[in-house]
């Protein structure tokens, strides 16, 4: 466990947590190899045998130790959110929030709180693709001076179910089917949609899940949400309801579904790599922490229940106040030790943050510790370095598997007279946690509140708030997912359910499925009816949201003013015009983008001016789906080579299909002429056309460069999708 050397190539950000972790870091640089007992090893190549060709001897403790450790390397993956990527960072509040909460880390802008973040997919296994259509987990551990606070959220603000008791059913339905363990990391199969078709309460969440939010461009370009309503409690004991948000400073962006599927083959680690590389290059991902605050007395002022996790509070009703910023500035040293062993729990709170009675949240409060007991092997998982708070831990919990702490003294109970009654309870004024003094006056009952029964109005609100291309993507996603469902009965029941959200949406999906929308009365499709209940009492309520649209729900309205961290491909071959290539590259790099020169083969290309230009990727190793935009510089021979190179033309065709910005130097026009989309391009290239179409050919270098930068910042030109069937 002891740290062996202190060698570090780059200075790493220092925080209480980083310093604490550093004590557990082992670095083998310049060291002899030893056994786990510290014995130097002389031969790590051959086992101990009776003669050169003889049987291996049981005595070989070096072999036994090595193989035994290897045999026990695996721990169970998380039952959900198994695939995840982690990073360290810091959080700072902008201004004192003590009017709302007594949580110290939110009351002092000078405090820099270390954080560890893990972002995950939900359904797939540890080794599954990053680009699955799925919800993303967004879990943040704040190592505060009052203990750990975990904000364990998702990238969507609502959830599929209203009560924790349905969670195992939901997860069993979405995971690979139990007989053949297919499909991996996908909800597009019978059991998932079978379950959903009986769960009207999932109507809102499935709109989010079928939207482009489920296929982010980058983990750095995703929103995060605490989902449940929590409480903030100030020093006077006054409570406010709160919804937590993470707002990415690079905006919220997604890829196209066709692109996502291709990325899954070309680079299944696409998101993990992107996060890692961004942090390594110093382009630190940043999010602002947002809060929506509702005073206690306004609890019943909304047309939905604040305790219902299938509802959001529209930002137009309660604005999101941005109160602080999180910056991820350090990659983990070791994936297993940190990202795999980190244990989040929605019940890890600090004074000033408390729960509500949301029945999903209440169930989660049980689940997260329980799951770590099996996953991390016992009750001492809080001692694993990544899980330790930065403040001391003192209590009478003792022993158990893998106990690290050596508790000194005779007493492990309280009250005690032998040891001065230590460790002592802390008064509230000294930081002792006191639960919010909520008044509860109730009968014990298994039931659901009628205030949870409107399942469609926010599903409608979400759909109505989307731009035209986003709506099309939702229709396509449902058509894809239900198209993969084998049972026509399930497809029809889903259409029946969707019809209650939006008849036009249902009929467009029905068209793609070659079916008609059945009119199914709601009581017949609500599976959440207790055995002795009258189904009529469980019939969903059809209400209209007071808002017709919420612009905040559409990604079309996100930030589109930067090319920072975008990946741009420059296609070139021998004979390229060096100036045309390098001057564009310089402008892009200046804007914070990463630029790769892609050529027919690796190594170097020689420009028209006989200058050597190094090649980053070949057409064999690169693919258009791994880039945000593409540029073709001038240079007669280069252009002729690319025009005849199928892979280069395919690269451009795919970039067009996925609505990316494309620019070519005027001299490279021929390459464009080889694409299938050339004939569709408008003839007049004024700025307006370019900003609509996203394809630019130009002679004036300055203008070309400026416009290309603006185009890339737009992210995608979804309007191009009108012609859906294209040969790429
Ligand atoms: Fe989780 N969830 N969850 N969940 N969840 C887990 O805990 C659970 C829910 C979320 O990167 C598990 O350590 C129940 C909502 C994230 O390590 C488990 C219910 C939201 C992560 C568990 C929910 C989440 C988890 C599996 C319904 C968004 C990954 C491994 C009552 C607000 C954390 C683990 C990480 C992980 C249970 C619903 C977010 C089994 C019972 C809603 C981000 O404890």
From TrEMBL:
Domain Catalase core, first and last residues per copy: 34-422
Gene Ontology molecular function, alphabetical: catalase activity; heme binding; metal ion binding
Transmembrane domains' residue ranges: none
Domain of life per record: Bacteria
SMART domains registered for this protein in UniProt: Catalase
One cellular component term from this protein's GO annotations in UniProt: cytosol
Active site as annotated: 81, 154
Record's compositionally biased regions (Basic and acidic residues): 1-15
Reaction catalyzed: 2 H2O2 = O2 + 2 H2O
Region Disordered, residue ranges: 1-25
Top-level class of the enzyme under EC nomenclature: oxidoreductase
PROSITE patterns hit by this protein: CATALASE_1, CATALASE_2, CATALASE_3
InterPro entries assigned to the protein according to its UniProt record, in alphabetical order: Catalase, Catalase_AS, Catalase_clade2, Catalase_clade2_helical, Catalase_core, Catalase_haem_BS, Catalase_immune_responsive, Catalase_large_C
Record's function text: Decomposes hydrogen peroxide into water and oxygen; serves to protect cells from the toxic effects of hydrogen peroxide.
Protein name, per record: Catalase
Species assigned in the record: Pedobacter changchengzhani
């Amino acid at each position: 466990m002891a740290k062996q050397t202190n060698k570090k190539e780059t200075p790493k950000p220092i925080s209480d947590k980083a310093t604490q972790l550093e004590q557990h870091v082992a670095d083998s640089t310049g060291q002899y190899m030893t056994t786990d007992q510290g014995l130097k090893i002389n031969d790590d190549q051959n086992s101990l045998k009776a003669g050169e060709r003889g049987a291996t001897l049981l005595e070989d403790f070096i072999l036994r130790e090595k193989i035994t450790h290897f045999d026990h390397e695996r721990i169970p993956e998380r039952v959900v959110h198994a695939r995840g990527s982690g990073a360290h960072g810091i959080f700072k509040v902008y201004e004192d929030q003590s009017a709302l909460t007594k949580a110290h880390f939110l009351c002092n802008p000078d405090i820099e709180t270390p954080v560890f973040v893990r972002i995950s997919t939900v359904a797939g296994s540890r080794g599954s693709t990053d680009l699955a259509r799925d919800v993303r987990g967004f879990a943040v551990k704040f190592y505060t001076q009052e203990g750990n606070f975990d904000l364990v959220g998702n990238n969507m603000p609502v959830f599929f179910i209203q009560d924790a008791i349905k969670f195992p059913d939901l997860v069993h339905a979405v995971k690979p089917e139990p007989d053949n363990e297919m499909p991996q990391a996908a909800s597009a199969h019978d059991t998932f949609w079978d379950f959903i078709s009986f769960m009207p309460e999932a109507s809102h969440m499935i709109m989010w899940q079928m939207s482009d939010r489920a296929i982010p461009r980058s983990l750095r370009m995703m929103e995060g949400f605490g989902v449940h309503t929590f409480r903030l409690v100030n020093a006077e004991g006054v409570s406010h309801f709160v919804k937590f948000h993470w707002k990415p400073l690079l905006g919220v962006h997604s890829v196209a579904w066709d692109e996502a599927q291709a990325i899954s083959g070309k680079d299944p680690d696409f998101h993990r790599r992107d996060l890692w590389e961004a942090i390594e290059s110093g382009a630190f991902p940043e999010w602002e922490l947002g809060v929506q605050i509702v005073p206690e007395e306004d609890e019943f002022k909304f047309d939905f229940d604040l305790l219902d996790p299938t509802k959001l509070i529209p930002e137009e009703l309660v604005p999101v106040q941005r109160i602080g910023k999180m910056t991820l500035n350090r990659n983990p040293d070791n994936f297993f030790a940190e990202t795999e062993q980190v244990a989040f729990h929605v019940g890890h709170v600090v004074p000033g943050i408390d729960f509500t009675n949301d029945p999903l949240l209440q169930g989660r409060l049980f689940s997260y510790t329980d799951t770590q007991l099996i996953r991390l092997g016992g009750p001492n998982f809080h001692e694993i370095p990544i899980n330790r708070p930065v403040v001391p831990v003192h209590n009478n919990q003792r022993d158990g598997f893998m106990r690290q702490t050596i508790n000194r003294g005779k007493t492990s109970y309280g009250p005690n007279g032998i040891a001065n009654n230590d460790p002592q309870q802390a008064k509230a004024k000294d930081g002792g946690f006191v639960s919010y003094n909520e008044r509860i006056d109730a009968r014990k009952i298994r039931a659901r509140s009628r205030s949870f029964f409107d399942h469609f109005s926010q599903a409608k609100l979400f759909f109505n708030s989307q731009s035209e291309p986003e709506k099309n993507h939702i229709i396509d996603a449902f058509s894809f997912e239900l198209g993969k469902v084998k049972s026509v009965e399930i497809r029809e029941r889903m259409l029946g359910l969707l019809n209650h959200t939006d008849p036009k949406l249902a009929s467009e999906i029905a068209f793609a499925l070659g079916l008609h929308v059945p009119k199914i009365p709601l009581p017949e499709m609500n599976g959440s009816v207790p055995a002795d209940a009258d189904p009529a009492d469980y019939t969903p309520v059809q209400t209209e949201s007071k808002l017709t649209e919420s612009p905040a729900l559409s990604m079309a309205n996100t930030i589109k003013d930067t090319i920072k961290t975008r990946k741009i491909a420059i296609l070139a071959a021998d004979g390229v015009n060096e100036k045309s290539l390098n001057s564009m590259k310089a402008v892009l790099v200046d804007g914070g983008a990463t630029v790769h020169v892609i050529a027919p083969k690796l190594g170097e290309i020689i420009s028209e001016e006989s200058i050597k230009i190094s090649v980053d990727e070949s057409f064999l190793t690169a693919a258009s789906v791994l880039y945000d935009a593409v540029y073709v510089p001038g240079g007669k021979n280069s252009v002729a080579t690319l025009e005849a190179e199928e892979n280069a033309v395919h690269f451009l065709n795919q970039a067009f299909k996925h609505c990316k910005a494309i620019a070519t130097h005027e001299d490279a026009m021929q390459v464009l002429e080889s694409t299938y989309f050339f004939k569709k391009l408008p003839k007049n290239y004024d700025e307006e056309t370019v900003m609509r179409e996203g394809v630019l050919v130009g002679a004036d270098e300055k203008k070309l460069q400026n416009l290309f930068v603006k185009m890339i910042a737009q992210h995608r030109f979804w309007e191009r999708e009108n012609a859906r069937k294209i040969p790429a």
